[in-house]
Amino acid sequence: MHIAKLVVVGVGLIGGSCALALRHAGVVGQIVGVGRTQANLDDALRLGVIDRARLLEDDWTAELHDADIVLVAAPVAQYADLFALIAPAIGIATIVTDAGSTKQDVIATACAAFGPRMATFVPAHPIAGTAHSGAAAALPGLYDGHIVIVTPLPETDAVALARVTALWQACGARVATLDAARHDRIYAAVSHLPHLLAFAYVAELAARPDAAQLLAHGGGGFRDFTRIAGGSPEMWRDIALANRGALQAELRAYRAALDELAGALDARDGAALERMFARSRTARQAWETAADRRRDGGEE
Amino acid sequence: MHIAKLVVVGVGLIGGSCALALRHAGVVGQIVGVGRTQANLDDALRLGVIDRARLLEDDWTAELHDADIVLVAAPVAQYADLFALIAPAIGIATIVTDAGSTKQDVIATACAAFGPRMATFVPAHPIAGTAHSGAAAALPGLYDGHIVIVTPLPETDAVALARVTALWQACGARVATLDAARHDRIYAAVSHLPHLLAFAYVAELAARPDAAQLLAHGGGGFRDFTRIAGGSPEMWRDIALANRGALQAELRAYRAALDELAGALDARDGAALERMFARSRTARQAWETAADRRRDGGEE
Questions:
Q1: What digits encode the pLDDT tens for the residues A118-130?
Q2: CA distance to partner chain B, nearest, from residue A230 (Å)
Q3: Is the ipTM of this complex over 0.90?
Q4: Could you say which of A187, A224, A273 has the minimum Cβ distance to residue B228?
Q5: Does B181 contact chain A (CB < 8 Å)?
Q6: How far apart are CA B288 and CA B283, in angstroms?
């Protein structure tokens, strides 16, 4: 596994951390970073995340014809424009992959742009993050022990898939394969829905006249429950729209669960409440045990 | 400030940590623990949390007549039975206080039991906890820098209030005063509702046929959002029922917020989604900054 030239489009936390991890692993030659702002690219250069920087507004696509791998790690809403620029400029051996949180919409966008070259586009989703963003937040160990989901199509080239798999393994990640539709439903359930629920909760509290006094009483439970309500509004708007169908289904299921909860409360049905809470506690404790085992290097 | 004899009814995380903190502060003579199970009382004795142990099923009320302070830190659903035993057995100078998460219902229960001695009952709510329970989980520093809310009544004795305030200050806590109804509304909003939302979320996922696969994909956001969904079903059933009125109002407000969110998603209204997320992010970031300042010893 060696990447002579890697182009990272979007040198933020996700793209930057991948670049740093590959550099630490010694598997990459030169890394070119493409981004929207000079300030962030300067951070990336200063911190050794990339070797050279190109602004998106400049003519950066000349960097693509001799690239081994192009990693698109920009916000998903920009993919259509980016793919339209990338597709005609890549070389015969260039593999393109992405790091978007949703996959069906990315695949549709990529198909439209890449056409016959779609076989060497490998849709992927690294499951990692921190509360921070930008190249300055990049960490070489961000993916260590984390999962990267790849969602290949029937026509995806086996060599391209193997190269992208090896790239993420070199970052310390474990790579798992899922059907794109299944991926989107799973992440709607365990990631996108909780983000929307937390956003709605804090937004509702914050709009009240006595918000300041209420929030001053938030403790440790509030802190944990709302941590994801501090995420990027733009990024989560894009994810919500990109995974809209699956999220609508998740919201319906959750609102039905709240109907059940409210009904038990209205009826003073302590037994029903306790059953619901106990089902939750049992599942949450089992989850924590399994997650600890995964983190300790055990099986997935 | 000195407590010659403290009786702790319910030697769990909350009562046990208070006992340990007072002992570390050197402000307490003997500590008697009263509990439901010999195993937990043995833990408390072994770990130096209490000096003597009495089982609830035995005749423990003889310990009360010469107690300076009785701290009731049992589940709130047991308060009616406990107060009925405590009220006739306390001495002329004994102060009774509690550590329950809801206050209007505790006050109503206490009024019924204590009658004319209600002036020396001080309703209180220490805002602290960990994921663990029982005497073995008690920590002398649990309340350090945390808030304890007291919700005195007009008839509450000033000396009793001052003693209970000093008790919690000796544990390292800051004591704040609130009207009981206001307390219950605030904690319904910032604590009880999030717990119910997290319980409903995990319970709903756990009931699906593909729960195991879904949960295997839960990452850091899932971990934080659902941490409080692992709480005690019995305790949260009791809190939900005890603070039912305030929680019903909170659930109504939250479900209206979800209606708004679902409407924006249905209409593909990215601008509305982004506004809601941005309002949340701004409030959550301001909260974190203020919470860090409080933790660093700044003003409340």
A1: 999 999 999 987 7
A2: 4
A3: no
A4: A224
A5: no
A6: 9
